[in-house]
Design goal:
Blueprint: H1 10-30, E1 39-44, E2 47-54, H2 57-68, E3 75-82
Parallel strand pairs: 2-3
Antiparallel strand pairs: 1-2
Length: 123
């Protein structure tokens, strides 16, 4: 049996996905608490995946809420890491003093970065 014609072509959907990724990226850039971070946003059929690293769990939650609040978003996969990006880690600059040498924060949130398994960003 022939599928009904919805009038939406693959190109239309790709354009909608690109626009959704752009809107989500802009929402994160406009937020004072999140503007300094680099995010990668992937969108497909209303599902949005957020990639990158933030400093705190509350920033991770904030990013997810901002993207979830976009009308066209149907689902959010918050794959943000929580911790210090490897290039910004004090030991990467050659400085060394006690607390600064601590390992990056671990994301041990339920469902975060894969079924609650601790994830450490490589340094």
């Amino acid at each position: 049996m022939k599928e009904p014609d919805t009038g939406e072509t693959r190109t239309d959907q790709q354009g909608a996905d690109a626009k959704l990724a752009e809107v989500a990226t802009e929402a994160l850039r406009r937020d004072r608490e999140l503007a300094e971070y680099d995010f990668e946003i992937l969108a497909l059929n209303g599902k949005v995946k957020i990639l990158g690293t933030v400093s705190t769990f509350s920033q991770k939650e904030r990013a997810e809420k901002l993207v979830t609040d976009i009308r066209e978003v149907k689902e959010v996969d918050n794959s943000l890491s929580v911790g210090v990006p490897s290039g910004d880690h004090p030991s990467a600059t050659g400085t060394s003093s006690g607390a600064q040498d601590a390992a990056p924060a671990r994301d041990i949130t339920p469902g975060g970065a894969g079924s609650g398994t601790p994830c450490v960003r490589p340094t």
